[in-house]
Amino acid sequence: MGNVNQIFIISLAVILLGYFLKKLKILNKNDGNSLVKIIMNITLPALIITVFIDLDLNANLIILPLTNIVYGFLAYFLAKKLFKDIKIEDAGSLIISLLGFNIGLFAYPFIENIWGKTGLQYMAFFDMGNAVIIFGLAYITAASYGPKRNELSATVITKKLLTFIPLMSYLLALLLNIFNFELNFYLFSVLKKVAGINGVLVLLVLGIYLEFKLDRSELKKISKAVIVKYSFGLLVGIALYLILPFGKLFNGVILLGVVMPTGMAVIPYSIENKLNTKISGSLVNLTNILSFIFMWLIFKFI
């Protein structure tokens, strides 16, 4: 387990490098989008496969994705009740901001360096449930609050899940593990090399996307969503951390998982369904900063 402060300082330096490269116009948001594609389709799948291939599977692991899925549905019903009396496009953006988390493009480098391979394996399992919420429940919710709410279909949702490369990588890696399939030495070495650059790319992307501006006209709604997100997350996370009998690291992964920032998918979902993109963008930016602080505190005290 690495020194938490040291790892956070180094990681913050890389994030700030990405931020200042953007400010100096050496990189821009389009470069960030390209890096996200590389991460989601190449380096993250490589990391998932190398992490899962020798994972010691046991029945307890299924609790991690199930916790994420159940939490997502609870958050949905809570948010639907709290935001029922506001404009439909605002309500849609606020509700989807509470469904799912940004884990793969936020937490993985920190977990790998501080909690090691076992911590990363646990969080990868938790993230499997997150994919179902983001590309299932959040997608359906966004569409149901938009003008095309009557065009929703199971085929579209299934296609979205089946074409999400990280989720397919989880399933492939699990199958390889279950059937004790050993990858060719050279193939495994290439995957390890590719996986090795994932952390730096993720941190650079965080810097490129980092913004300190909030839309003040929507501040009241944004503040309410943030308070609900972290109050509910900490309440559930701390309760499960204290109650579950699976050990400090396993329980800590759940606590960390439920205070991760709003998933970046809410922005394209809001654009696609004509929801309030100002709210979505502000929540992504603000929760990235707040979750960074919560993550440091959790790593520090667990």
Automatic annotation (TrEMBL):
Keywords: Cell membrane, Membrane, Transmembrane, Transmembrane helix, Transport. It is a multi-pass membrane protein. GO terms for biological process: transmembrane transport. It is found in: Membrane. InterPro entries: Mem_transp_PIN-like (IPR004776). The chain crosses the membrane at residues 6-22, 34-53, 59-79, 91-111, 123-140, 161-179, 185-210, 222-243, 249-271, 283-299. It comes from Halanaerobium saccharolyticum subsp. saccharolyticum DSM 6643. GO terms for cellular component: membrane. This is Transporter. It comes from the Bacteria.
